[in-house]
What we know:
Layout: E1 19-24, H1 40-48, E2 50-51, E3 55-60, H2 67-77, E4 104-108, E5 115-120, H3 124-133, H4 152-163, E6 168-173, H5 181-196, E7 200-204, E8 217-222, E9 225-229, H6 235-245, H7 248-255
Parallel strand pairs: 3-7, 3-8, 5-6, 6-7
Antiparallel strand pairs: 1-2, 1-4, 8-9
Amino acid sequence: xxxxxxxxxxxxxxxxxxxxxxxxxxxxxxxxxxxxxxxxxxxxxxxxxxxxxxxxxxxxxxxxxxxxxxxxxxxxxxxxxxxxxxxxxxxxxxxxxxxxxxxxxxxxxxxxxxxxxxxxxxxxxxxxxxxxxxxxxxxxxxxxxxxxxxxxxxxxxxxxxxxxxxxxxxxxxxxxxxxxxxxxxxxxxxxxxxxxxxxxxxxxxxxxxxxxxxxxxxxxxxxxxxxxxxxxxxxxxxxxxxxxxxxxxxxxxxxx
Length: 256
């Protein structure tokens, strides 16, 4: 009888996604008059749920469209710190997130527990300080103690390279904020590598560069609620094209 071949290390099948869907928990009570519940994109998720595809998904919309509210809720429902970090991160400065995460439930893919991490540009200083305060688990300097010694963008990319690895569920809120044009291109390449490794990534962004990632899913948030669009249909793409082609048409009225 031929010997059974060892299965080797577990590798997810192509297209596997740790989180298949988030939806309103049937046991949750929601005040639909609350400010966060009246955001059209959030109201759409409460009403119909949200299917999350494999690979990289971008949440795009104007300020106030619900991008951060939704990505914070995705962090909470997956057991992550809404101010950034891993499942075990305990730091907190001032609670500003909505209660949406506590009203949702996640429909997960059965199997091993995936890696998970959340990075958000506006709270990275607090996250760096928290990581710096943790005891070192091995001899020698811990890489997290050098985060404050780097520029904002360098620290952000360093943390991303070390914490976002392999099959997992990863979240980013406006990661382009501390990055130069070249560094944003580097982040785009990292997103492609994460996708190849089987990661599921959700990114809230204003960047026409990041959303140009081939094969990415773009969800546009706005008065209409939430809908899937192509890169060339995005307002941010059209606006940047018009501005770069003729900046005076924008600057003239603004500056008199």
